[in-house]
Design brief:
By secondary structure, the chain is α+β, with helices and mostly antiparallel strands. It is built from eleven helices and 18 strands. The chain folds into three domains: 118 residues, Nucleotidyltransferase, domain 5 (2-Layer Sandwich); 92 residues, ATPase, nucleotide binding domain (Nucleotidyltransferase, domain 5); 69 residues, Actin, Chain A, domain 4. Helices cover 38% and strands 27% of the residues. The longest helix has 25 residues.
Amino acid sequence: MLSRLLGMFSKHLAMDLGTANTLMYTRAAGIVLNEPSVVAVDVIKNKVLAVGREAREYMGRTPQRIKAVRPMRDGVIADFDVTKDMIEFFIRKVVQGLRIVKPSIVICVPTGITQVEKRAVIEAAHLAGVREVLLIEEPMAAAIGANLPIHEPLGNLVVDIGGGTTEVAVITMSAIAYAESARVAGDAMNHAIQRYLQDTFQLVVGENMAERVKMLIGSAAPLPQPLIAEVAGKDAVYGAPKVVRVSDSHIREALRETTNAILSAIFKTLEKIPPELASDIAHNGVLLAGGGALLKGLEQLITRETRLKVIVDDDPLTTVLRGTGRTLEDREFYSRVYIN
């Protein structure tokens, strides 16, 4: 009775605590926050200066006393204290005004998360002022967000490519039958572009520029029309500012190792599942979600290599959060999908 009364006055939140971006959802307003998972810290005073979008602008441009930190790595907490501050900042931004009781929250996590990493997420949320913390695995949340029939005895293959991890999972009867969590995703693509530009053009670029190049001309398969971009950075030999013209074929070559690793995780998953589930997937196809799903030509590459139909979610950047938020609507109906 008391918990039901508290629930009437508290705010129920859903959070996609991602390596690249953090998104939040409330039952009343839907998606209310989408900001980079970046915190700017004054290392001398040990004080947080900026969080999210503002802090991202600091990256690569800070004096020595200020550090722009990404506290999440490979989908899990790498810097506990900074993550706690970031979660607290985002919760305060979403839950404004007087709070009668602390909010409850559902947070999505990678399938390969360890017990220690689970405890770190839960503890960070509690210290940030949350009353109750529930965890859901990212592929399950993506399946719910894309309206897949997760409760039925049917195999559904989900490929969720985030910032730090690529989650490949087969879901049936509200559970994950088999999953592969590869720590190769959007960040690895950015780093691959940085390495390629330095090796091929002697051009040093920051992570923000590498990500812009990926979004502008990055692709996993040949494009109908070639794309060219001018990329600005620093000459690796002389240190002077430098601009080079780069084509989509250059960036495709840079990303080849990463896209092959994603394909490898898909093939490994398909090899490990029973033939009945494989038959379902042959009929239902593959759901592609996460920011990495927006890479041009990735859908065609997976189709060509696996001979499976690939469905890209309408808004792949928010699929996981929408699914996490949907579990707030009927906690009892979705009770079997929580992992803690």
